[in-house]
Amino acid sequence: MNDAERDYQMRHRLVVKQLINRFCFFAVAIASLLSAQPKSYLTQGMQTVERVPDDILPETMARLPQVNREALDAVGLQAYDTYVRPGTGYGNGPRGPVAMWLHSPVLAEAIFDVRQRVRYGTTKDQRLTELIILSTAREINNQYEWSAHEPLAKSAGLQQEIIEIIKYRRDLEGLPAIAGLGATEILLIQFTRELVSEEKVNSFTFSRAIEEFGEEALMDIVGLIGYYNFVAMTLKAFDVQRPIETELLLPMPAQ
User: Fold this and answer.
1) Are 211 and 237 in a shared domain?
2) Which of 149, 112, 147, 144 is CA-nearest to residue 130?
3) How far apart are CA 78 and CA 69, in angstroms?
4) How many CB atoms neighbour CB 219 within 10 A?
5) Residue 124's pLDDT band (boundaries 50, 70, 90)?
6) In whole angstroms, how far apart are CA 248 and each of 47, 54, 89?
7) How confident is the model at residue 31, as a pLDDT?
8) DSSP string over 134-177
9) Any idea what the CATH number is for the domain that residue 198 is in?
10) HSE on the CB side for 91, CA within 13 Å?
11) Judgement on whether residues 136 and 94 belong to the same structural domain of the protein
12) Which domain holds residue 245?
């Protein structure tokens, strides 16, 4: 190879390298631009028979049958009666994720204690509890959880404007003044978003949370978020469906 050919090859390689670098730069820029765009969401309407998969059993609206109380042993009866009694929300019988958990009575009873602690046994009020539950359901796009808890959140006093911010995952920066939306509410939404959807909660958010809530309360908040992720795993594994002719309240991301 003579000098002219060698020089040509070097210049050719340089041009190719520059083109590749420019392509990578524009690809990253386009990806960043797209990721910065707000997501669009599609309303889901009503639950219908046509939407229910073929492997769903009508008695539970899930993949597993209802537990027969009369067929349970002592351990099973204790777990069943822990849930199915006045004041638990299941006085008329197990449904949803609880109906699935009762197939493993020891697990079901252990979960009950966690449920009671993180939902009802802490110092934060139910309004903030429901805010965290909705934020968790939004991050994991769980229709069952959201549709069950949006009415509960309203009953607990969570304002519709705040529900809409969570529902459509709106940016928390630069929000207008909204009744009931203070630093605590914004911090809880942000903390939940980071805990569920990011690799970890960043140091700034964590330092604000530990200062605001303290160690025990923050651990309980993490427990509440973790509990509803476990609920969601149950709902997904056994494909638990919302009742027919009920509104599916969580809009889902457009594909």
Assistant:
1) yes
2) 149
3) 10
4) 13
5) confident
6) 6, 19, 21
7) 41
8) HHHHHHTT-HHHHHHHHHHHHHTT--HHHHHHHHTT--STTPPP
9) 1.20.1290.10
10) 4
11) no
12) 44-55+125-253
Where among 121, 148, 168 does a domain terminate? Answer: 121
In this prediction, residue 36 has a pLDDT band, given cuts at 50, 70 and 90, of very low
191 assigned to some structural domain = yes
Cα torsion at 60, 120, 76, 105 (round to 10°)?
A: 80
- Stronger pLDDT, 30 or 11, i.e. the higher one: 11
* Residues 155 and 244 occupy one common structural domain: yes
- Distance from C-alpha of 112 to C-alpha of 192, rounded to nearest angstrom: 22
Question: Domain for residue 39, yes or no?
Answer: no
According to DSSP, the β-strands at 41-42 and 252-253 are antiparallel
Number of separate domains in the chain: 3
Q: What is the pLDDT of residues 86-110, one digit of tens each?
A: 999 999 999 999 999 999 999 999 9
Separation between Cα atoms, residue 124 and residue 217, nearest integer Å: 8
Q: What are the tens digits of pLDDT across the range 153-211?
A: 999 999 999 999 999 999 999 999 999 999 999 999 999 999 999 999 999 999 999 99
Q: Domain check: are 156 and 108 in the same one? A: no
- Domain annotation covers residue 109: yes
The four Cα atoms 15, 20, 22, 27 give a dihedral, to 10 degrees, of: 170
The dihedral over CA atoms of 194, 198, 204, 209, expressed in degrees to the nearest 10, equals 30
